[in-house]
């Protein structure tokens, strides 16, 4: 997992819960990195899981809810860092259905070692999209948060339903209806 995901996560934790919480989740985790991250480095996903688990225990928020809030923050980071990529799109359904074949393809050119999910478009109309998410990291709620913000970015909104294809969340169907 790329360092930018860690650095932005810890910034958000500090903003929302304070520096003590950052210290708590780092010192209670067993981290190869010792909790020192640089944006361009690459770290084990298991470090993120430990940080999330400790934050979840402390805040009594579910990991899914934490990932949702975090993704909504991360969208702003993407907006600032990759304005050109977002400017290619005029419509949220077009953008979300292009993650697999365009957006994440570009991401992989910048970060060859990025650990990305796969998205398969099952059905697409002008204002609806059914898309299957697959990833061993089960970060579907991170995807949900990014999708919510994508609609907001285009001054729109949507109802998005998640249906687990696998109980462990490594395969999830997104059913998206633009309002
Ligand atoms: C992960 C970039 C848009 C879904 C990531 C990562 C980067 C990235 C750098 C982390 C990779 C790693 O840690 O190794 C971008 C950029 C985008 C974009 C630059 C737009 C300009 C989106 C959108 C979605 C999405 C709109 C919505 C579905 C995900 C998910 C992950 C991810 C779910 C977590 C990894 C996993 O589930 O396995 N993306 N992304 N991305 N991205 Fe994107």
UniProtKB/TrEMBL annotation:
This is Heme NO-binding domain-containing protein. It comes from the Bacteria. Pfam families: HNOB. InterPro entries: H-NOX_domain_sf (IPR038158), Heme_NO-bd (IPR011644), NO_sig/Golgi_transp_ligand-bd (IPR024096). Residues 2-160 form the Heme NO-binding domain. It comes from Psychroserpens algicola.
